[in-house]
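Researcher: Quick sanity check before group meeting.
Model: Go ahead. Protein one:
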Amino acid sequence: MPSKNKPRPHGECSAGDTSLTATIRRHAVPPPYRIRPGTRFPPGATPSSDGVNFCAFSQHATHAELSLYAAADSCAPFQVITLDCEHNRSFFFWHVFVENLPVGTYYTWRMDGPGDIVATGRCFYPYKELLDPWARAVSDKLWDRRRACAGQSIASNGLRAIVVEPPVQRSSSAHSCWQYADLEGAVIYELHVGGFTQHSSAAVTHPGSFSALKEKIPYLQALGVTHVELLPVMAFDTQDVPPNVANRALQNYWGYSTHSFWAPHPGYCIDPVQSVQEFRDLVDAFHAADIGVLLDVVFNHTAEGGIHGPVIHFKGLANDIFYHLDDIDRRRYLDFTGCGNTVNCNHPLVTAFIVHCLEYWVETLGVDGFRFDLASVFARGENGIPLPNPPLPWAIESSKILSQVPVIAEAWDAAGLYHVGAFPGMAWSEWNGRYRDVMRRFVRGDPGIISEVAARIAGSADLYNERRPANSINFITCHDGFTLYDLVSYQDKHNEANGEDNRDGSNDNMSWNCGVEGETSDAAVLALRRRQVKNLLAVLMLSRGVPMLLFGDEVLRTQHGNNNTWCQNNAISWFDWRLTDHNADMLRFTRELISLRRRHTCLTSNRFFTGRQISGRGISDIVWHGVQLDEPLWHDGQARVLACTIAGLSNDEEDLHVIFNMSDQILNAPLPTINGRQWHHTLDTAQNTPADIIEQKRQVPLAKPVYRVSPRSVVVLEARA
């Protein structure tokens, strides 16, 4: 063969020897393995019946080497394959086929070539082993970020790709949430895979894993959510933290430091070699429970960081293509993310990398959609300047596969580009930050914002009038910021545990502590906080658009005032399952509230209100009120009361009358008359359980056309025959 094929000894690593011996015995084919030229598609490591095809991209490399390891901790490769430019290169791709190589083999790449990093941004590190960017599974067993950043002379960084088989779909369920591409009727639950089951009270077999999350699906099913949105599950660097944070033994917990976009995070797996199958099994289990799986994905930056960050893959393969670089000194990385580098998303090859990666997670791993972190980066051209029609967002929603699943943008970036209501493309949904802000202000009691509150409740037509209400992802809290209970318990952030002198995290939380900062035994304050949480949950579930709930908010999970727990992989961030008993009344309230929403198409309809009469009903789809019927307080600078009557969309659906009283005064609210129907008490956040929300079969009609609304409360009434 024209390609060189060099076996190497194991050195002194007995674990590696044992693993290799077992491999040889299983396959009865001792190394060195024979090789063929291979093909450039698909990139990555692709096993077949007679071996494995390896392929990696590096446009300007002139030398490539593939190292094969028996185990994650083998001290040396058992075979090093030097690729030949004539036979193992097609255009910008390097490839080789290794005959009879077993699945479970670990591997790395080395590349060399001409580099002029100052002028061109091209750089090569021939002594460094590089991780395959297309790796389907990875091991970080030997990874040491500080060591990798310390010096260029270190050859192995400890990150190794693993040859794995495609997963098998084990579930017989034919469920596919592709039918929910526009998210109409969805209720999203944002959760952290590790944090959801890491606490000892979770009582699971493998805490913090994909497998453990499967054990908690019945809880989510009973809660009534339609989708989970998982914080990053693509393999990320837990060690990517500043030195002062690392010195406190803290980790990159949230996972917004991806290094392997095609691979599940090994920290969530029982066995990294089985990581793809373990993740697919989780998705199948969710689908069997009729719950869709959305992934929070991070394509705006990578774990390689800036000029002082480690060389993991892209820096040594195609630094000038995958990253935004400074035009004057191309050693410098442009940083629109606050994380050291920015992915050059709109370069054609990078766009293809991202689109194909997303298609893989849908087609092969079964996920049902994506939320994109700092997605406004997608609008930046190769020089970092925003483009009017950036290729990547259009390529994503034009994909035959991705056009069938919801795509959600966090429509801003760290450099000030803000796209809420105007993200490029047609079908994109967005995290509606304007919804979050105005609802926090309204429920804490800010006056004079009634008009905007009504616009957000009605689906934000002012932002999405060329789209639909489901393009608005409505939320009060998310992973980034206070929990719902902390929002009503803390005026200020308390992030001292993060080791950054409380400088990190947002200073403008639009929160209110109900009169006491933090923990208290004051019964009146505690009762008010509970009511405020119910008010916020009710506002969220009564708004058109798609509600998103942060995990644990339904049981008053607290982070003790820390609004930036990105590095807190401990009890500060974990779900304490004892709260499901301690705050069972809140859990019941949330379950019933979600049930109320899901049985009312007038709340979940993916159409904007028009004010016109419903066909065959004789009443308008919505009528706004204030203290008096038909008199909304649009222009009252002190108003803190809003009410509305929402018509059922069919003769079988109840009409709703909703009263939001965020003032400090009792309100005797008159009720509208609807022919042939009578109002029934459904929800009142000022009441204790079970009167705070009443199941449909237990509701009783009101005797009078007036309802006494307590201060700082939300009331919902249903009209039926």
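Researcher: Fine. The other one?
Model: Protein two, sequence then structure:
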Amino acid sequence: MDSAGLKQKLLQLDGSGYKSYRGVRGAYSFPRFELFIDYVQGDPFAAPSRLRARVPQASAGFEPGLYDRDVRRVALEDYLARAFARAIGSVVRGNRGTGKSGHIGVDSGGQEILERTAAVVNAGFAEVRFAAGLPADGRRCLGREAVAMLIDEVPRLVDASLFMDALDGGAVRRHIEAAEDQEWLREWLRREGLAAFVADGSVLPRESGIRDLPLKGAGVVEFISPPELRREPMLPNRGKITGMGIPGGVTLIVGGGYHGKSTLLRALESGVYSHIPGDGRELVACRDDAVKIRAEDGRRIEKVDISPFISNLPFDIDTTAFGTENASGSTSQAANIVEALEAGSRLLLIDEDTSATNFMIRDELMQRLIAKEKEPITPFIDQVRNLEGEHGVSTVLVMGGSGDYFGVADTVIAMEDYMPRVVTAAARRIAGSRKDIRAAEGPGRFGPLSPRAPLARSLNPRRGGREKVAAKGLRTIVFGRQTVDLSFVEQLVDRSQTRAIGDLVRFGLKRGFFDGEADLAAILDLMLEAVAGESLDAISPYAEEDARAGRPGAHPGDYALPRRYEIAAMINRMRSLLVRP
């Protein structure tokens, strides 16, 4: 059916019951694009309807070089979703009645460039997936208002965002090339044996703790690398740049309060993702297996081998398969490290401000007062070198309160007025001059990692007679009868990632990946391999329902690809989780 037919349908629905809108589901040919109405909401207060606008590539005009590699395709799709969102701000009138009436929205993201389902570009077409609240007065269709939305506004949105000749070609290419350079930097880090890189001129401070935009103004300090750590990578698009390369091994970031230690670490945490031009962190790169570790009092732990850090507990509690419903700061931080390693991380990012003090250090005075046989904790300081030697795990650690770490560090960087200075030699000299030296504690080795196989029967997405999986904001997932708290999973950056994590676990259960034999790392591999082969669309419950009904799929437009480490974090924080060691 063409757009005139859709217009006639909508006019005929004017004044009828809201569920009548379901009759407009289908595909419609417009002069320059095709509109798919994939899912129609049943109520004006319910989640908005799901639509797609598709332009044939012959008309869209995006040359293959803009999407011929995954990194370029992802960046172009990201740009188109943002262009559609910008157009909404200038084209869409807004509220048109009850509930979500008149709303048009697209998942356009924040400062990061992530693989999303909001837009699709290939050799055949360019497509944007968006949500629309079909207009209502109470629970009556406002057909004429729906005509204004779908017949007038949507074509203007498509014209502004899905045709190359309507876009700023230079901005499109800068967006794509920025993402490509950042991915190249992360690959370069591994080749060079580096943990992270911060380019000269980067702007690391953010506007506030709740706004991720770069800080602006006369007092903003641009990053300048210290000469001892300066590197000069040659990027594929920008060419030669300079900046600070943080070596693998154990790196301390020290300095006084408010001098930029934690700001630098937060930039490194975020450096596992690519950022949009103008963010200030476009050339801050961290190895993509980096995981931020912190204490997490109160979380549940299920049969995790924390014995490298905690052993000889009172009452002979087994720490090789430790479980608790209410972890302490030290046990939670130990479990968080072991779980990150289990998922494949080989780079830990730690800030003393969010760590359990007794997990990080037991100083010489405390050692004198409390004998080792009465202290079950082997502090991190006594395992950090074993982690590197036995498992190739590097650590970047912000430390402002304990100089004991000077003796185990390969590199020490002091932040002064947001500027880095290498002080490794001075730190070693100070460490060597001490008269009262703490004794190393623990077994002298970390030991093997102990994989665990999650059991499918413990991960039930059903609530009552139906599945219930949903993201509630950035840090909460409802999964069946339980609510999973991800408040301290700090490298989650987008609610669409959170939404995808819940449905990925549900998808893994349906595919039989949780078979009681595969360990968690293998399950994560299977999930991400399936998504890479089939796209993120495959995890959508809408796609499954439509496949069963023999209808075209209601393709999701609100997923962003999460990392394996955040998927693992969700599974490990489910209070129902059972594993087979």
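Researcher: One line on it for the slide.
Model: The two ends are 57 Å apart (CA to CA).
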